[in-house]
TrEMBL record:
Highest taxon of source: Bacteria
Species in which this protein is naturally found: Sphingomonas hengshuiensis
NCBIfam families, per database record: sufC
Family (UniProt): Belongs to the ABC transporter superfamily. Ycf16 family.
Keywords, alphabetical: ATP-binding, Nucleotide-binding
Protein name in UniProt: Cysteine desulfurase
Keyword Disulfide bond assigned: no
Length: 247
C-alpha cells in the first residue's frame, strides 16, 4: 500500500529525515516510536503534504501512485488521513458543515456522487454514537471549547465518516485519560482494522499499543528507522528507554 524509499526531507532548510525507508502493507498496523526531535511528526506531515515540509530525495508511492507528486487534497481523496497531535480549532464552521464538505469533496475527487444531507447525517450520527459523542457536539464549531479528549474523539468521528485507506495518527494518545484512551483505541480498531486498510501510529508510549496492537514497531532516531520488530519491541522501549536501543 505505502512504500517509502530513502526519504530525505527538510523544513526551513534544516534536514530532518535522512534516508527513511518503510513499507506498509494492507491490513497492517505499524507503530513509529522514538525520542523527541527524531522526525516522527515530520514524517506524517511530509506524507500528508503539509506546506513547508519538503521532500528533497527518495520516493513515496501509495497504491502505486507517486504520493509526493500529488496535492494534499488529492492525497486525501486517494485515501490518506492525517490525525494531528493537537487538532486545530475552526471558529465559525460547524463540525457538520466541515465534515460534509470534506467527505463530498473527496467523493467528487473519486467521481462518486456526493451524499445528501439526510445520508450524511445518518452516517455522522452512527459514527458519533460509536465513539460515545453527543450528536449536539457535531453542531458546534470544529473543536472550539472541546477538551483534549473530546478533540481526539471528534477526530475519530472524522476518520470514521471519511473512511480512509491509510490513517497516519500523530500522538493520538496525547492528553487522554484512561477512558478516552480506550474509546480512541476502540475507534481505531473499529474503523481501520480491515484487510484493505492500514495504520501508522506515531507515539512515544506503549499505552496506546495496549488497545491497538501493532503488527510492527519501528524506532525512528535522527531521521532514520534504526530498528524494527514486533509488539515486544515497544515493551522493550518502555523498560529500557530510547538511549540504548536507538544508539
Amino acid at each position: 500500500m505505502l512504500n517509502i524509499e530513502n526519504l530525505h526531507a527538510e523544513i526551513g532548510g534544516k534536514q530532518i529525515l535522512k534516508g527513511l525507508t518503510l513499507r506498509v502493507g494492507a491490513g497492517e498496523v505499524h507503530a513509529i516510536m522514538g525520542p523527541n526531535g527524531a522526525g516522527k511528526s515530520t514524517l506524517g506531515y511530509v506524507l500528508g503534504g503539509r506546506p513547508g515540509y519538503e521532500a528533497t530525495a527518495g520516493s513515496v508511492t501509495f497504491d502505486g501512485a507517486d504520493l509526493l507528486d500529488m496535492a494534499p487534497h488529492a492525497r486525501a481523496a486517494a485515501g490518506l488521513f492525517l490525525g494531528f497531535q493537537y487538532p486545530v480549532e475552526i471558529p465559525g464552521i460547524s463540525n457538520v458543515q466541515f465534515l460534509r464538505e470534506a467527505l463530498n469533496s473527496q467523493r467528487r475527487g473519486r467521481d462518486e456522487a456526493p451524499l445528501s444531507g439526510g445520508e450524511f447525517l445518518k452516517l455522522a450520527r452512527a459514527q458519533a454514537d460509536a465513539l460515545g459523542m453527543d450528536m449536539e457536539m457535531l453542531k458546534r464549531p470544529v473543536n472550539v471549547g472541546f477538551s483534549g479528549g473530546e478533540k481526539k474523539r471528534n477526530e475519530m468521528v472524522q476518520m470514521g465518516i471519511i473512511g480512509p485507506k491509510l490513517a497516519i495518527l500523530d500522538e493520538t494518545d496525547s492528553g487522554l485519560d484512561i477512558d478516552a484512551l480506550k474509546a480512541v483505541g476502540d475507534g481505531i480498531n473499529r474503523i481501520m482494522r480491515a484487510p484493505d486498510k492500514a495504520v501508522i501510529l506515531i507515539t512515544h508510549y506503549q499505552r496506546l499499543l495496549d488497545y491497538v496492537r501493532p503488527d510492527f514497531v519501528h524506532v525512528l532516531a535522527d531521521g532514520r528507522i534504526v530498528r524494527s520488530g514486533g509488539p515486544e519491541l515497544a515493551l522493550e522501549l518502555e523498560r529500557e528507554g530510547y538511549g540504548a536501543i536507538a544508539a
